[in-house]
């Protein structure tokens, strides 16, 4: 599973450094129960299909999403608005798109357009197949935390 997760860690670090202008550090990944709710207020979701299927989800609390959007747009936001939603969607899109390139030795993948889910303790409906959900917490701005959760299941050779 590490060979599938490592591309997501590397592209996340690169994306935040290049786009947000800040370093992030990956904490210890863990398995996430598929029925678990999120700790955040906003999640950006990208579906994966092709020779593997699954999803990539970035989740964070409202103040962090706003702070990142403020940096990206150069304007102040006081709540989750369309620009915050767009910023979170763009971040997950960039991460999933670049990780897809790193996984193409193993799978030909297609990624969906990003979807956004809002609300405290919202739940993401993960595929119920064999894929386990790996959650990677990242520290940003010294003490804020967001998560990147990934579930990938190979369907190559299945009929």
Concise overview:
Helices cover 33% and strands 31% of the residues.
DSSP strand (E) fraction? 25-35%
CATH third-tier fold name: Chemotaxis protein chec
Looking at the structure, what is the overall shape? globular
Query: Would you state the CATH class?
Result: Alpha Beta
Helix content: 25-40%
- Give the termini distance in whole angstroms: 23 Å
Per CATH, the superfamily is: CheC-like
Task: Name the average pLDDT.
Answer: 89
Q: Which oligomerization state do the chains in this entry correspond to?
A: single chain
| Uncertain spans | none
The succession of helices and strands, N to C, reads HEEEEHHEEEE
Number of domains: 1
Structural class: alpha+beta
- Major sheet details: 8 strands, antiparallel
Q: Count of DSSP E strands?
A: 8
Rg (CA only): 15 Å
CATH architecture: 3-Layer(aba) Sandwich
Number of helices: 3
């Amino acid at each position: 599973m590490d060979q599938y997760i490592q591309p997501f860690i590397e592209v996340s670090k690169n994306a935040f450094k290049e786009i947000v202008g800040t370093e992030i550090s990956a904490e210890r990944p863990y398995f996430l129960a598929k029925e678990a709710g999120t700790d955040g207020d906003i999640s950006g979701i990208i579906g994966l299909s092709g020779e593997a299927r699954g999803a990539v989800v970035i989740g964070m609390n409202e103040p962090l999403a706003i702070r990142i959007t403020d940096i990206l747009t150069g304007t102040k936001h006081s709540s989750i608005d369309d620009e915050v939603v767009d910023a979170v969607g763009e971040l997950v899109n960039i991460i999933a798109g670049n990780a897809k390139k790193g996984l193409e030795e193993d799978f030909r993948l297609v990624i969906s357009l990003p979807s956004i889910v809002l609300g405290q303790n919202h739940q993401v409906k993960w595929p119920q197949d064999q894929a386990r959900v790996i959650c990677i917490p990242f520290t940003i701005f010294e003490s804020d935390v967001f998560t990147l959760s990934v579930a990938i299941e190979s369907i190559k050779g299945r009929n």
